[in-house]
């Protein structure tokens, strides 16, 4: 059985470490290995059981906490080796904290496309913290929001209500597939964060625009929704999406959706830029609407162009 | 595990569980698209494809993802699936 990995991303000072420290205090998050950038940042002193070496500590609830020494793939393999050798306790989940200024895509890609890591680990969910007081800062923060399965709006107690509503609206426009949770001091039910990994919910709350906003950089990023009446030919879709991600990978920050490929349930498609989760067949549709629906988060393309192109490709299949 | 190189291999997401029929169909779709850029693809052993241009350039690629990287190199520019001229050619 693969070990689930929870990725926590978010800009500098947005509350990642506070969130992780509070999560680790929950008994149900025992047997977790946490990979952080700096041990001191996590505020684990009062949870500390003992120090294993200069970069690893054991927490009183059975969690292991270690700093990222090398690249993530090496660290994940090392964790397994040390667990199997009995150097650290058993763990059944890994939480990875990204650096605040980083685009999380390379980490997602390591978890999905490394030659070895996906044989042992499974990306369960991506959580992004957003500073409720200071909002989004720059392109990297927008990429973090786009990559998220759940958004945690931190410090809501320090922000004006109107400003918070405005920020939440902006988050929903960038990534309508991710629920937004307002969380004070990291106080959130772990299950609420971790159970969204398979949530096939797609646009609904805030209907994404059919056309992206004009502009450059961060301001041009928008979510676009496609709904297709006819079933989608999977082979043609695979050719189309791989081609799209190669040609426009830098501008396609996220693709998430449910595809009607002719079976009883839909196929769940989930990409973070060029990092693509293995598609998952769901047993049933989440509601009575059985049309294919896809959300594209990015810039430089329109719903009409995406739809026309996908339809043209679908007609190419010998079965289409 | 690849029996030749001993390296753990991973199926491309678009080709998971592919049978021969799916590979033949995919090659047909690919060739309709690649034709517009002066390229062609032939399904090869395993999940590989042989990619060719009209000047004799050839590349063997491991899967569908790698195919577009190499096609872009052979063509000398990105192959954009949203380009109007490509879509017009596909409809003709």
Defining traits:
heterodimer, A: 320 residues, alpha/beta, Rossmann fold, Hypothetical Protein Yjia, Chain: A,domain 2, 2 domains, 9-stranded mixed sheet, 6-stranded antiparallel sheet, 26% strand, B: 92 residues, alpha+beta, 3-stranded antiparallel sheet, 3 helices, 39% helix
Write the layout of secondary structure elements.
The complex is a heterodimer of chains A (320) and B (92).
Chain A (H helix, E strand, L loop, with lengths): L2 E8 L5 H9 L7 E5 L11 E6 L2 E4 L4 E4 L4 H13 L8 E5 L7 H9 L3 H4 E11 L6 H10 L2 E5 L6 H14 L5 E4 L6 H5 L27 E7 L5 H15 L3 E8 L7 E6 L2 E2 L3 E2 L10 E7 L4 H12 L6
Parallel strand pairs in A: 1-6, 1-7, 2-5, 2-6, 7-8, 8-9
Antiparallel strand pairs in A: 3-4, 4-5, 10-15, 11-12, 11-15, 12-13, 12-14
Chain B lengths: L19 H16 L3 E5 L5 E5 L4 E4 L2 H12 L8 H8 L1
Antiparallel strand pairs in B: 1-2, 2-3
Describe it:
- The complex is a heterodimer of chains A (320) and B (92).
- With 320 residues, chain A is an alpha/beta fold.
- Chain A folds into two domains: 3-198, Rossmann fold, CATH 3.40.50.300; 217-314, CobW-like, C-terminal domain (Hypothetical Protein Yjia, Chain: A,domain 2, 2-Layer Sandwich).
- Helices cover 28% and strands 26% of the residues of chain A.
- Chain A contains nine helices and 15 strands.
- Chain A has helices at 16-24, 72-84, 105-113, 117-120, 138-147, 161-174, 190-194, 234-248, 303-314; strands at residues 3-10, 32-36, 48-53, 56-59, 64-67, 93-97, 121-131, 150-154, 180-183, 222-228, 252-259, 267-272, 275-276, 280-281, 292-298.
- Chain A starts with a strand and ends in a 6-residue tail after the last helix.
- Chain B has 92 residues and is of the alpha+beta class.
- Helix content of chain B is 39%, strand content 15%.
- Chain B has three helices and three strands.
- In chain B, a hairpin with a 5-residue loop joins β1 and β2.
- The radius of gyration of chain B is 14 Å and the shape is globular.
- Chain B starts with 19 loop residues before the first helix and ends with a helix.
- Mean pLDDT of chain B is 87; it is low at 1-8.
- Chains A and B meet through α8 and α9 of A and α1, α2 and α3 of B.
């Amino acid at each position: 059985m693969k070990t689930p990995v929870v990725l926590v991303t978010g800009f500098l000072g947005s509350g990642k470490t506070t969130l992780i420290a509070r999560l680790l205090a929950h008994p149900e998050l025992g047997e977790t290995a946490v990979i952080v950038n700096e041990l001191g940042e996590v505020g684990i002193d009062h949870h500390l059981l003992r120090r294993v070496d200069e970069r690893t500590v054991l927490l009183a609830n059975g969690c292991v906490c270690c700093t990222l020494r090398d690249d993530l793939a090496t660290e994940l393999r090392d964790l397994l080796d040390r667990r199997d050798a009995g150097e650290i306790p058993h763990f059944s989940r890994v939480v990875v904290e990204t650096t605040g200024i980083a685009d999380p895509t390379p980490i997602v890609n390591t978890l999905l496309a490394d030659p070895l890591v996906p044989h042992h680990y499974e990306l369960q969910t991506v959580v992004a913290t957003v500073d409720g007081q200071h909002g989004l800062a720059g392109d990297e923060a927008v990429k973090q929001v786009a990559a998220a399965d759940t958004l945690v709006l931190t410090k809501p107690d320090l922000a004006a209500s109107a400003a918070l509503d405005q920020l939440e609206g902006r988050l929903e426009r960038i990534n309508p597939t991710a629920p937004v949770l307002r969380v004070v001091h990291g106080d959130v039910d772990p299950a609420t964060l971790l159970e969204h990994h398979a949530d096939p919910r797609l646009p609904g709350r805030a209907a994404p625009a059919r056309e992206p906003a004009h502009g450059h950089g961060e301001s041009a990023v928008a979510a676009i929704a496609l709904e297709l009446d006819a079933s989608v030919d999977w082979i043609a879709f695979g050719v189309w999406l791989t081609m799209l991600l190669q040609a426009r990978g830098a501008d396609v920050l996220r693709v998430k959706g449910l595809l009607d490929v002719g079976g009883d349930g839909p196929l769940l498609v989930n990409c973070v830029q060029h990092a693509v989760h293995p598609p998952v067949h769901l047993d049933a549709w989440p509601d009575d609407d059985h049309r294919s629906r896809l959300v594209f988060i990015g810039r430089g393309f329109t719903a009409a162009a995406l739809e026309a192109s996908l339809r043209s490709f679908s007609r190419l299949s010998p079965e289409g | 595990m690849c029996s030749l190189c001993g390296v753990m291999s991973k199926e491309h997401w678009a080709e998971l569980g592919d049978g021969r029929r799916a590979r033949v169909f995919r090659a047909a779709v690919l060739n309709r698209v690649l034709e517009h850029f002066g390229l062609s693809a032939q399904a090869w052993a395993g999940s590989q494809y042989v990619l060719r241009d009209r000047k004799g350039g050839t590349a063997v690629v491991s899967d569908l993802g790698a195919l577009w990287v190499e096609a872009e190199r052979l063509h000398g520019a990105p192959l954009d699936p949203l380009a109007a001229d490509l879509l017009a050619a596909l409809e003709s």
